[in-house]
Structure formats: structure tokens, C-alpha cells
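Thread: Modeling a multi-component assembly for a lab meeting

Hi all, long-time lurker, first post. My supervisor asked me to bring a structural picture of a complex we are working on to next week's group meeting, and I have zero experience with this. I have the sequence lines for every component (771 residues in total). Could someone generate the structure of the whole assembly? Inputs are pasted exactly as I received them:
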Amino acid sequence: MTSTSQAGDPDTKSVRVAVSLAAIPRSGGWFHSQTARRLGFGYALLAPAALYVTLLVAVPFLFSLYLAVSDASVGEQVAGFVGLENFKAALEMDTFWIALRNSVVFFVAAAILKSILGTSLAFLLLQNFRGKKIVRALVVIPFTLPVAISVLGWKWMYDSQFSVFNWVLSRMGLIGAYGTDAWPVWLGDPRLALIACVLVNVWRTFPFSAIVLLAGFTSVPNEVLDAAKVDGCTFMQRFHHVVVPMIFPILMVGFLFDTVFTLSDLSVVYILTQGGPGNATQILPVLAYQIGIQAGNLGRGAAIALFLVPLLAPAMFVFLRNLKRREY
Amino acid sequence: MTLSVHGRAQSQVTRRQFVTTASIGLAGGSLATMLAARQAPAQVRGTSLRILTWSHFIPAYDTWFDKFVGDWGEKNGVKVRVDHIPHLEIPARMAAEFAAGAGHDILFNGSTILTRIYYKTLADLTDIYDQIGKKYGGWIPAARSPVDVEGRIYGIPIYYILLPMIWRKDLFDQAGLKPPDTWELARVAARTLKAKGHPTGIQFSHCNDANLNWRSLLFSFGGTETDPSGERPTIDTKEMREALRFSKALFDEGMTPEVFSWDDASDNRYLASGIACWVHDAISAYRTTESTNPPVFQNAYIGLEPAGPGGKRVSVSAPNAFMVWKFSKNQAAAKEFLVHLMDNDKEGMVQSTGYNMPFLNDTAKKPMPVIGADPKLQVLQDFPKIVAFFGYPGPYTTQIQEVANLFVLPDMFTRVARGQGVDETIKWGVGEYQRIFAKHKRA
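Re: Modeling a multi-component assembly
Sure thing. I ran the full set together rather than chain by chain. Output:
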């Protein structure tokens, strides 16, 4: 290189550089080859994304792993290695098993309801009607409202004494009067309380499912749907055999996000019931927060939170594998 | 290098020991002079002080407090800033500040007391605690428990919040009932008045009032939570069984299932709605009815903590304390401010309309500000000697804090109210307590 950088006219210089580059593999090894440069350039372009993922995903995850195998406390600068002690302690807790069961029930129930409501809403928003744009904007409001405010609103609607649902249902004669056994106590009955929490989670996030599906539906060309119609396909056949396969990647990404949002949702249960009554609505994120932050045992809190990984990992694996297969 | 006096080999002082001792002596002397002069030392001037506190249930208190802090800052040349956040967010904020090693200088702890978790990173406030106590006739017996770790003080207890009996005299009189001076009388009243559309309610749920109320009942029944050292849970007792059976009867006879869903404010609303015959709650429940339901306000009376079967009364209250981070760069100003705050303890009580109960004996002397002048509230002056906190009669330890955070004790009462057997419930509760205590012991 040094020899080619000597002064000379531009044409001569560029020719010399080209000759010099071609000669590098023989004189400077593979690291100076064109392939190496191309790869280096490619990795340089990837580096910001890789750094971003490392800093925001890998580092916190590894840090949680470190906390989970330590006796870290919120008030201690140093932590000692305790192996799997925190996981063992979690498994010994009755409350942990209740939280695990509730987390699964919460996730499955919410996923089913969000699929039904999200798909229905997406189909409705596909139709042409007056004020469609306003309606589209309005349906995302639950998703965009600060969670603390919206859930506090729900807490009032579920209030044991002033519940607007109960007063409407009571006026309609569907439930008994206030003070009788036929007056539902939404957040006080163990089964109703869990249902009430699931409903708030669904209300908050099903617009997201609908928007994702809507984006997918609009990407399906009308010609394909028309061709299916001409072939005599019913609505369900078109949906099952044409629309779903075509929007599958979008569906998978939507499910992926939704799974994470639902399983890690701390706010709804924490604000509505704090896991009560009698742990009836206790879920893993709330339990992890109560033990890890409020009671100060970071290690055990992290271990409980990490139990979400085995719940999430199979779902992630299935989604991502299907997505990969569809790409080829 | 070692400074030593020949012939007195047993008395050796290293340079480091000398410097440390001299510094402590100098700092102690300066603080004493500063406190005696009631003026901040020169090094405090030109500094800044950040205070993190809660949003008080009495908004007027916050208004007064912010101005009080501002006036003090102006007088002493300290730039001050007060941040108010909901008290439930304080543990998370404290954890974040600890991790960052930066943040506020003074921190508030309310209900959730984290002294024993953070004490290694908190400034030792024993000197000002002792001096304030000496100046104001000492602290009430319960004051030390939330802020003491192995004989050192890491927080200044500023006030506690009582949950007395608030009962409807008009309803009691109409039914010919005696005031609810004992838990048994309260139960009879609830049974009688529920039939007339006026049940009672105590939270069988996950909220702080549930933690406080059921402990008051348990301790008044003669039960305890830990031994005096705080090392061993003591809930498998005859008194605990009696308290659980009593709570089941109280629920069946005098409450509705609403109580399973209640939060800290539900009983306030229950009283304000005119339905409750009595509630066991902070006096904010009573105060708010003044504007929301004046007839209820006129007829609501405050009672002493109901006595248990043996005549014992223990009122479990919510303590509140201010702490100072060890990494605070302005500990001198922080201490000076806390002393000034406690010098104005009575004024704070006035501004809170009697909601803040004093930890200092002199302020707790009759007549107390505000409540001493109000015939309905005068009974609150008898509470200081029966006040206790979580863990009674043991100290407020980290394991008890975890028990409270997981609502183990209210869950025991909830299980029995829902029909689970007392023995089965005790077995479950003992298991939860022992598991938590054992983990802390291992740690």
C-alpha cells in the first residue's frame, strides 16, 4: 500500500491501488482480502443492532440470571453465590404454585379472548362505513392510555359498592340488589377476581391484536380473495386457507408480542387486587415484585421472575420456528 | 506509624484510629454546638438538599410541609427540593437510588419500613435521635422498633397513623347498643345492625389496612407475632385460634362478602355512604365525611382500641420515618433539617388536622394539638401507650416486612372467613412464616 500512495496522477494512482489490492492475499494474508473487507463492512453495519440487543436484552437477562443465583438484596452492595437456592425456595412456596397456575390461566384465557375479539374487530374495521377513521383511532385508546389511570378506572367500575356494572345489571333485573348474596363482588370472589383481571388485560391489549391483524388483512390482494370466491370458497374457507397462510408471519409476530405483554403484565393485577383475595389472583410478576422489590430480596424475586422463561420459551420457539419455515 | 506511650503497651493508638476518633469527636461536638445554637453551620450554606416524601392523605399537610421546607432552606441558605410520590412507589424508588448510589438526601418510609434492609447504606442518626428525645421528654416506647438496628438508629420516626374504632352513635343508640369498647361489643353491634341494613367491614384482602387491622385484633386477644427478639414467629397459639374464630363469627354475623375486595379506601367510602355501623380505620375516614356526608360526620364517634377477651388493647399503627442516605453529600444539612422538623412536631400535628400522631412524649402529653380540643377525638390521646407495630412484641424486622408484603396474616383470617378450618389455616400460616424466617436466617 505504501508504495501505491506515492504521488502521481489520479489515473495512475487508482490503477496502482487495484493492482496492489489484488496482490494482498499473497502478501498480507486473508485479513486484507476483499472478502474480509466485505465481511467487515457487513458486520460494521450490523454492529449497532447487535449492540442494541446486547445492551437492552442480553445484559439485563444475564444480570437477572446473576441475581437469581445470588443472595442479592436491595440493600447490599455485594452478593454471594447461592447456586439454585432461590429457585428451590420458590418451589417450596405454596404461593408460588398458585401464582404459576394463575399465570398460565391468565395467559391462556387472555390469548383466547384477544384472538376472538381482535379478529372480529379487525374484520369490522375492514368494512367501509362512515366515521371509519375516527373509529380506528378510538379503538386504540385503551392501548395508549397510561395503565395506572385506566386500571384505576376499572377498579372503580368493579367497586364492591359503587360498581357501575352491578348497578346496570341490577336495574335490568339480572342480578340482585346491593347487600344481597346475588350482588357480585368482582374483586372479592376468587374466581370473579381472576376473570375481572383477565378482562382488563384483554380490554387494554386486544386493540393491539386487532391493529396487527388489520395490517395483515389489508396486505392480502383482493384478486386472490376474488379468485377464491369464484372457486366457491366460503368465508371461513377463505379465512383459513387463503388469508391466514398469507398473513402468517404477521400473525406470529403479533402473537409473540402479545404473549410477552400478557405474561409479564404486572400492573393490572397489582393495581386491582395486589394478588388477593387470599392469593386468588396472584401471578408471577406480582409475586416477584412483592418479594424482590417490596421485601428487598432481589435474588429470590429474580428467580421467581425467571420462571416466566420456561413459560415463554416454548411459545417463542414454536412461533419463531414456524416463522422461519414459512420464509423458505 | 504507631503512637504509643512507653510503659503502657496495652494502650496503643494507630494514626488511623486517632484520626477517626478525632473526626467523630469533632463532628459530634459541631453537631451539638449547632443544635444548641439552632443555626445551621456555615458549611451547610450554599448546599442543596433533596427530600423524597409521600403524598400525604391530608393534602393541606403537604402544602404546609413544602412551605416549611422552603422557609428553612431560605433561612439557612440551603437550596431545597421536595418530591412527593405515592407511598406504594417508595420501595422501588429507594431500590433505584440505592443501586445508582445517588438521588435524594432524605427519604420517607411509610407503612413499609425498610430500615433493616438498607441500614448499611443509611446514615447513623443515633446522635440526633437521642438529642431530640432528650429535649422533648423521650420517645414513646414503640418509636424505636421501626428505626433501630442493633442498637443504632437509622431513621427519625416522625409520626404514626392510628386506626381507631369509628362508630355511628345514632345507629347504636337507636338499637340500644353499648359503645364498641371491646371486640365482643363490636361484634354484637355488627350482628344487630347488619339486620337493620348497617353491617360493618374490615378488609379480608391484600392491602395495608388488612395487615394493620387484623394484627390489632390478634394482639388485643393476647396473641403475638414473634418473640421479643424477633427471631421466632409465635402465631401457633391459643390466642391466635381465638382471634381466628372470632373473626369468622364477626364476618358471618356482621359483614358482607364485599370485604374480600376492599382496598385501603373502601372502608372510608363505606362509612361515608352511611351504611357502615362501625369501621376500624384511620381518622381520615371520619374527616372526609365532614364534606361528603355531614349527617354521618355529626353522628360518627371515635373509640379507643377495642379490648380483647382479657381486657388487653393493642393498636397496630402505620409508622412513618425519615432516613438519610449515607451517600448523601449533605448529611449535615439533612440532620439539621430533621431536628428542625421535630422541633415543630406540634405544628405538623396541627397541619395534619390531628392525623399525624406524635412519637415524642412531650407532644403526646395531654392536651395534644387539635385532637385535645375536639371532644370526639380526645380519646386518641390515650393511644400512645398501646401503640405497636408489625412483629409485636418483637422488632420490625426484614422477615416481618416480607410477611407483611405477602399479606400472610390477613390471608390466614381470609381463609378462615371463607370456611377453612382454624387448625388447617394455622398449619398453613406457620409454614409460610417459618419458610420466610428460615430464608432470612440462611441469608
